[in-house]
Amino acid sequence: MATNKDKEKREDNGQDYRAPLIPQDERRKDNNSMVYLSTFVAVCGSYSFGTGIGYSSPSEAAIKKDLNLTIAQYSLFGSILTLGAMIGAVASGPISDYFGRKGALRISSVICIGGWLAIYLAQGPIPLDTGRLATGFGMGVFSYVLLIIAGVSISFIIGTQLHWRTLALSGLIPCAVLLVGLFFIPESPRWLAKIGKPLEFDSALRLLRGSDDTYEEAAEIKDYIDTLEKLPKATVFDLFQRRYSRSVIVIVTTLNALFIDKAGRKPLLLVSVATMALGCLLAATSFYMKTYQIALVAAPALAVTGILLFIAGFSLGMGAVPWVIMSEIFPINIKGTAGGLVTLVNWAGAWAVSYTFNFLLNWSSYGTFLLYAAVNVACILFVINLVPETKGKTLEEIQAAINH
User: Fold this and answer.
1) Structure confidence by residue, pLDDT tens digits, 349-368
2) How many domains does the chain have?
3) pLDDT at 250 over 60
4) Both 254 and 392 in a single domain?
5) Which among 249, 282, 241, 250 is positioned nearest to 366, based on CA atoms?
6) Whether 215 and 171 share a structural domain
7) Do 66 and 133 belong to one domain?
8) What is the distance between the alpha carbons of residues 18 and 223, in angstroms, rounded to a whole number?
9) What region holds the Major facilitator superfamily (MFS) profile domain (predicted)?
10) Which residues of 189-198 are buried (b: 16+ CB within 10 A; e: fewer)?
11) Which residues are CB-contacts of 190 (< 8 A; sequence separation ≥ 6)?
């Protein structure tokens, strides 16, 4: 384990204590099969997240017809997922701290399964909304972004072919895979170290690494946990100190993960938002043509192209980069509280958009997408003027750039 002298030396040198004590190239390459399995199981949560988001669009007409729902009732059903996710996101921290990472995933899986079954069996708006709220809560606990877009896209595709009740049952599959897979993967070593279970910590770390030679990494993790314990506990009000309030900014695909550190944060955001704005403009043009009976043959193609562009743009940057920036700009003692507040604001905005969408569409189909395009243009200006570039910078450098 690192000595106090080592800690002081790192602090005196101004190094970020989060940096690995052992260079990556000096570590022996171990068997990563358990890491891959653990990642796959966790990713099932994000895929389930995507299926929940994508469910309400292809099923709208059939659910409104079968259950005789009004626009307001269906708008509540579609948007209540985000309310559940807001609650789940806020609860995810305490749940993970108390039950562990596996425990949190297990709880969210069971709640999601119950929610999908409630939707499948629903005969009226109350059980329908209850099920949607439950799935939202479970997905808010998941809060991963790796395969959300895949889940959304597949739900859109198969949703046009399946009955809405059958589509709800399909949402059970990733939850079930996640629930079963949790029996085969270890608990988070860092959580075990945090709650003071050294034997379980060592066992989980060896299992993840596929090696018994984990002494150096174990020492690094314990050193990190000890450092965290010495930091003052942050509160929500600390976020609004000047040094933090100016840090408050604003879900990932494989392509994005490969290029985010090469391209930089701001360029990816700008390309992403510009693509989303273009997608909204194409969709607005399509609805305008349909409304005024202009080139009706081309209108569907424009609409599909616009939606695909929007999804592609979101996947490229806005799906992940804001969360990356958030993780980089906040000091460690405020990071947890800041992350919870940012997540809450994110879901509140998602609820507002989801709930108002059908009402806006009834007001003006093309006007709705013009409004969304304008929001994206405003976002471009925001990124250019206020978002810091964090690529290749230490936490101290980022804070200095923000505060000056």
Assistant:
1) 888 888 898 899 889 999 99
2) 3
3) yes
4) yes
5) 282
6) no
7) yes
8) 10
9) 1-391
10) bbbbbbeebe
11) 221, 224, 225
